[in-house]
Each structure stands twice: as C-alpha cells, then as structure tokens.
Amino acid sequence: MEKEFVFGHQNPDTDAIGTAIAFSYLQNKLGYNTEAVALGEPNDETAYALKKFGFEAPRVIKKAAPEVNAVMLVDHNEPQQSVSDIDKVKVTHVVDHHRIMNFNTADPLYYRAEPMGCTSTIVWKMFNENGIEIPEKLAGLMLSAIISDTLLLKSPTTTDDDKKAVEALAKIANVDYKEYGLVMLKAGTNISDKSEEELIDLDAKSFALNGHNVRVAQINVVDLPEALERKDAFLKAMEASSNDNGYDMFMLLITNILDSDSEALVVGSDETKELFEKAFDKKLNDSEVKLPGVVSRKKQVVPPLTEAFEG
Predict the structure, then answer these.
(1) How far is 40 from 106, CA to CA, in rounded Å?
(2) Which residues are part of a known binding site for Mn(2+)?
(3) What are the binding residues?
(4) What's the CATH superfamily of 2-185?
(5) Stated pTM of the model
(6) pLDDT tens digits, residue range 232-256?
(7) The domain 194-308: what is its CATH number?
C-alpha cells in the first residue's frame, strides 16, 4: 500500500502534532501505511510533552506531493492552514473539531468532525470503537493534546467526552493529569527568550472572512501585565507581518492560563477594526481591548468575527 502523510495545521500546536502521531498509529493498525509529519517545528509546550513521553518530533515538510499522492488531515481542514501544495494531493481522511470552510474534494473520503475540545478526543473514541489498545506513552501524548486545547479542561470548548478521555488516558499513561497539565501548560508560557516576530507566528491561523484575509494569533502567559509591556513591539511586528502577507486584520490574543482572561491587540484598516469592535461589542483603546473569559480562538473568537465580517 502506498504511503500517506498524516499532519495537522501550519504553526502546529500540541493537538496538531500529538494527534497526527496518534492518528497515524491508529491508521497503521487498521492496515494503512502512514507517516506522521508536521508543517512546522514544535513549540515549547509541545516539545515538553514529546520529551516527557519519549517521542521524537515528526519531521517537518514544506510540500507533500514530491513524496506522496495522498494525505490524511487532523485538526484542520481549511486549505490556507494546510500544506502549501494541498491541491496537488488526494485527501483521503479528515478528523477535525473546527468549522468546515473552503474544503472540497474530487473523490469521496472519510470525514469525521465533532465539536469536541480537542481532535485527540475524537481519535481516542476511534481507538475505542476499533478495539485497539492505546500504548502508555501514546496515551500521555494524546492526554497532552487535550490538556493543551482545553486549557486543562477550563476552556468553554470542553465537553463531557474530553473529560472522559482525559481521565481514561491519564490512567493509561499513569500520570496525575492536573499536576502534569499545569507543568506542561507553564512550559509553553516562557516568552522572554523569543522575539515579537516569533511569538506572533507561533500559534497563528489565517481565516478568509467575506473577502478579508484575517490573521488570529494566540500566546499563553502566566503574567499578562509583563507580556503587555511589549505591546508597541507586538503591534509593530503585526503591522510588518500584515504588510508582508496581505493580512487585512491581525489580532493577537494574549491569554493568562491561570485565570482564563485575555487581552487582544489588533492592527488593520479602520473598516476591519470597526468590524472587530462589532464582533465583540467593545471599543479598542489604542489598538487594545480586554476580553475577560475569552480563551478559545475556535469558539469565542472566530465565530463572532465571522458573523461581524459576513453580517
């Protein structure tokens, strides 16, 4: 059987990388020939989880077509978030927990989308449905993905299935998920040794909203005031990135993982800034706004932006 790649989105997080590894393992057990790869280097949080459970980071690819004819996608479906030559390969499987947008194929495929807090929760269910045992180390990596995406089950995206998966996977991995989860999340909050340009690209996704190219980045911290001391430098980096890449609006969500509050920095035209203010019913003050309780890009940021831009 021809080999297929399995990968998550660009600027991969712990879900994108961890779930690619888990889904590749599952598909190989089901008779496919797959390799988990990545569309970028792991961030600090993901690197911590990989090392903790004894995994090497998947190799990074820039294009898929030179090596394979078909691919499987996890944790994304939108083409602009995928490999650069996604239009040159056949997509045979998708497992995702996001909105479906601008996605189409020439042939039928396996597509599973559920409104879970994490894609790894869906894959956990698939292991159970197929009666395939999850190895201890892989359970730890899948657990890490769910902790990351749900902010230790505190995100509003968290479902009962996510909670069940965390408890089951923690038992297999033989870890205290609350203790481990906080350490893992904190491992991803050290921003002092990174430039503003690096930080705004670590966890960023582009969205096509009614003809506008909107970039939404997020960084997690434990000290929000300290992060905002770099506000001017962040805004300058966001402006430069927008000019270089044609973004009509760039939003940076800075989230305190300890109290689940965020502040947003926004650059863009007067039109897109007005649409942002409409989306959140809040006024920007010097390109900044407080967003208490907002932690999820998928559930609390993209839907109101989509409604405002397309309304």
Answers:
(1) 27
(2) 9, 13, 15, 75, 97, 149
(3) 9, 13, 15, 75, 97, 149
(4) inorganic pyrophosphatase (n-terminal core) (3.90.1640.10)
(5) 0.91
(6) 999 999 999 999 999 999 999 999 9
(7) 3.10.310.20
